[in-house]
Structures are given as C-alpha cells and as structure tokens.
C-alpha cells in the first residue's frame, strides 16, 4: 500500500506491517514486564521454599555460547502447593556470557535445601527467589525497538535514494576537501583500517581457539590463572584483537564518511538531502541490493560500518554494565 502524508511517501507492505506489529508488541510486552517487577516486589510475601533442582544450562547461539541459571523450587501459599522456576520477578530469564557467572547465580541454591521465596498474592503461582529487578526485559525491548524503528524508517520517504543521482566524473569535478586524513594519504588510511579489522578478527579467533584449548587441558583440574601465567596471554590477546578491530572499524568509518562527503561534491545541483540527516533515506539504502550508483554504494557502506560499530559498543556496554 502506497500513501503520502504531507508530501512524504509511505509504503507499507504485508511484511512491514507484520514486522511492525510483532516488534511493537515485543516492546510493549517486555516493557510492561520490566515495570511490573517493582509491583511484584512491593507486594511480595516471604514463604519457605525447597530447592528441587539447581543447574547451569548451556545455550548455543550464533555468536557463541551463553549459559542460563536454572533453579526449580516448590513452595506453599495459603494451603496450595506451587512449583516455581524464576530467580527474578520477570518472565525473562537473563543469560550469562560465562559458565562461572551462571554458577555464581545458582550458588545460593543447593538441591533439597530450604530457602526464602517471594510470592505476589495476586499471582501466587509466579513465585521468585530474588526480590530485585533484572534488566533482561530491557534487552528484549531494546531489540524490538531497533527493529520497529528501522522498519518504520524504511517505510517512510523516497523509494530510490542513492540511485541515478547523476554523479559527475572526478575529471569534471575534483573534490577539494579531505585530501589527507591525519596527515596520511587517503588510500593509506583505508588500507590500514582494513588490515586492522582483519588482523583483529584473526587474533580474536586464535584467542578463542586458545581459550578452548586451555579449557580442554584443565577440564579435570581446578586451575587459578594469574596475570604472570602464560595462560593469561590468551584472553589478553583476545582483548587486543577486539581493540584492534574497533580501532580499524573507527578508522574505516571516518575514511568512508569523508569519502561520501567528497562524492557529494560531485553531485549536480540541486543535491538530494543527506541520508545521514534523513534516516528514512539511510534505512532504505541499507536495505537496497540493486541499482545503487557510486554515491549510494558509499552511503550504504558507511551506514553499515556505523551500524556495526553501534552494535559492538552495545555488546560491550551490555557485558560491562548489565
């Protein structure tokens, strides 16, 4: 369905509508779940519970392996027996990046031991063990919000940005800006950025293999690694690889954005609005596979690098603070 609001074109396909409904519903549901945790904690009544199971579950995901803390317990409230499996008062259970973090989460709960559980009288079947909120719903809500926002931006605005822009040959219009970057030739900066990214990925991959080898070699032993041990060099190498990749990505993003600015100088007047000031155009270009000219292709590569950098920073912030 094609429409127009104050001259702005809008295209809604069946897929777009479904994605908007699902992602919007995910944001609303997870947002409500996060807020209702406070109400459940405020209304909670403490009861005795018996732990029937406490274990760490390994979850294979695309980016590697996550771990979940599984705790099952039984309790009685007003004469009725219930079975619960929530550590926090949320329908979303947090995953952990390492097995040791998941083990720390279930450490207070030994099988067959009596612990304190908390019950909201309005929902006695939804008992939980920790009277504090988890940020797990926010992660799900954030993902849904990103999908909703991107789908909305893609549906609004011109349908062919970055195509047939009439970009003139460099022989006719010689760009005057950004001849060098940091005092280096532009090609040199591009070369260094790609090598840093490739090298960082390679070092990180080798570090993962090294960590896997260390785990296999010490599987039957309780080993404590200090900073002076050779084993400590493995995770350190992984950190160096990540840092090299991020620096390379940042350099490439800077080079690519200035290259985009140089290409804009070659566009005939009147120039189209900048996709980096009109997110609707950027979203459409990022989802376009065919028909982009040199200008549109550069916008797409720059936007993709920006998305990757934002994703990496989001992952780092999630690991450090959530």
UniProtKB/TrEMBL annotation:
Keywords for the protein's UniProt record, in alphabetical order: Membrane, Transmembrane, Transmembrane helix
Organism of provenance: Halovenus carboxidivorans
Regions crossing the membrane: 12-32, 138-158, 196-216, 236-257, 303-321
Keyword Transmembrane: yes
Name of this protein: DUF3592 domain-containing protein
Alphabetized InterPro entries for the sequence: DUF3592
Residue ranges constituting the DUF3592 domain according to the UniProt record: 47-132
Lineage: superkingdom: Archaea
Keyword rRNA-binding: no
Pfam families linked to this entry: DUF3592 (PF12158)
């Amino acid at each position: 369905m094609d429409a127009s609001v104050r001259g702005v074109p809008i295209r809604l396909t069946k897929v777009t509508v479904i994605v908007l409904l699902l992602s919007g519903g995910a944001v609303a549901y997870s947002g409500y779940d996060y807020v209702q945790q406070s109400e459940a904690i405020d209304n909670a009544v403490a009861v005795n519970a018996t732990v029937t199971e406490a274990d760490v579950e390994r979850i294979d995901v695309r980016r590697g392996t996550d771990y979940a803390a599984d705790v099952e317990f039984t309790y009685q409230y007003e004469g009725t027996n219930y079975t619960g499996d929530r550590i926090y008062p949320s329908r979303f259970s947090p995953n952990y990046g390492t097995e040791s973090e998941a083990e720390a989460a279930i450490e207070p709960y030994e099988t067959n031991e009596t612990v304190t559980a908390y019950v909201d009288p309005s929902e006695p079947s939804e008992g939980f063990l920790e009277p504090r909120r988890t940020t797990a719903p926010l992660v799900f809500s954030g993902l849904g919000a990103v999908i909703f926002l991107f789908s909305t931006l893609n549906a609004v605005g011109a349908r062919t940005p970055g195509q047939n822009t009439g970009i003139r040959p460099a022989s006719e219009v010689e760009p005057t800006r950004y001849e060098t970057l940091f005092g280096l030739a532009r090609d040199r900066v591009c070369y260094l950025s790609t090598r840093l990214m490739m090298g960082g990925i390679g070092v990180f991959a080798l570090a993962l293999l090294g960590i896997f080898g260390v785990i296999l070699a010490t599987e039957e032993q309780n080993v404590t690694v200090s900073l002076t041990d050779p084993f400590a060099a493995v995770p350190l190498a992984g950190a160096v690889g990540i840092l090299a990749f991020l620096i390379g990505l940042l350099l490439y993003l800077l080079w690519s954005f200035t290259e985009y600015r140089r290409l804009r100088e070659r566009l005939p007047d009147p120039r189209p609005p900048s996709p980096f000031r009109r997110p609707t155009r950027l979203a459409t270009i990022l989802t376009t596979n065919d028909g982009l000219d040199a200008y549109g292709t550069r916008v797409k590569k720059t936007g993709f690098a920006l998305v990757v950098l934002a994703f990496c920073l989001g992952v780092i912030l999630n690991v450090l603070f959530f």
